[in-house]
Specification:
With 294 residues, this protein is an all-alpha fold. It has 2 domains: 158 residues, no CATH class; 113 residues, Topoisomerase I, Chain A, domain 4 (Orthogonal Bundle). It is elongated, with a radius of gyration of 25 Å.
Length: 294
């Protein structure tokens, strides 16, 4: 792939990323506006046709969340389609289901069984958001496969070679980047120093990348004057240097924190699954209570 093709791909990826972010914000704004309308105007009640069916559909969606777990664990479902499709469906249900249930309540907390079911659902939804945040650090793309530590380290090595090729004229910059890499993997004694490094590593990396990009621009300006680069050539070199610096820092952070993210994801899974079962039980109790006890 040549430079022009890479540039086109990068522009396409950026456009898709912007479109996704805009779509999410539009969705959030619309939901907030609808929530305000329902909470203030009370256009329906939880037990009338609209409210009841909204709760029924939302609750059914939450129940269908189990399909993803079944697909991963039951051998006879191995040929029932790629896991990533089930995960995408799981994510969709995990967003729309709670929204429908919350709108079903008209933002009023009712009887004890209703409160327990609602709180259980909020636990599952909140846990799902946390899991999604952890998930993105160890998987490729939104619904992609899990990366391996070897792949993360390979990407780091490729990024290191890339940085060396573009910044060979700036040994001070390379040393700073190498020092950051050394800091990211040095063995620290005690859980608190290791935890603090894990929490702050990306912030340190972003700060370093910002400073190094600025230094690289000045270094390349000097090199450009010596080599009589045109304005476009200088701009291209500066852009390439910035991209490779950012890529290297990101690769260092990903490789250094990968194992911790994997452990956190496993721990999250231990917590999330019982929450899901609790939701199913409380949801069934709520449905029985509403339909047969009131």
């Amino acid at each position: 792939m040549n430079t022009h093709q890479k540039s086109d791909t990068s522009l396409t990826d950026n456009a898709l990323r912007v479109a996704w972010h805009v779509s999410v914000w539009v969705f959030v704004i619309v939901m907030v506006a609808l929530a305000w309308f329902v909470a203030t105007e009370r256009p329906y009640k939880a037990d009338d046709v609209i409210g009841y069916n909204m709760g029924l559909v939302g609750g059914s969606m939450m129940l269908l969340l189990l399909i993803y777990s079944l697909r991963k664990r039951l051998g006879f479902m191995n040929k029932a389609g790629p896991v990533r499709h089930y995960f995408a469906f799981h994510m969709f249900l995990g967003v729309i289901g709670p929204i429908l249930v919350i709108f079903h309540t008209t933002f009023k907390i009712g009887a004890l069984n209703s409160r327990i079911a609602l709180y259980s659902m909020l636990l599952v939804a909140g846990s799902g958001l946390v899991g999604r945040f952890v998930y993105r650090h160890i998987h490729q793309g939104l619904y992609g496969r899990q990366t391996s530590l070897a792949e993360a380290e390979q990407l780091l090595n490729e990024s290191a070679e890339s940085v060396q090729s573009i910044l060979s004229i700036a040994p001070d910059i390379e040393k700073k980047l190498e020092d950051f890499r050394s800091y990211s993997v040095v063995k620290l004694k005690g859980i608190w120093p290791r935890s603090w490094r894990f929490i702050t590593l990306r912030m340190r990396g972003h700060s370093l990348a910002h400073a190094v990009r600025k230094e690289a621009r000045h270094t390349l300006e000097q090199a450009g004057r010596e080599k009589n680069w045109s304005h476009d050539e200088l701009a291209a070199q500066q852009k390439l240097a910035g991209e490779r610096i950012d890529g290297y820092v990101e690769a260092v952070c990903s490789a250094a924190t990968y194992a911790t993210w994997v452990r956190l994801f496993a721990l999250w899974h231990v917590v999330h699954v019982p929450f899901l079962y609790l939701l199913i039980i409380t949801g069934i109790v709520h449905v029985v209570a509403v339909n047969f006890m009131y």
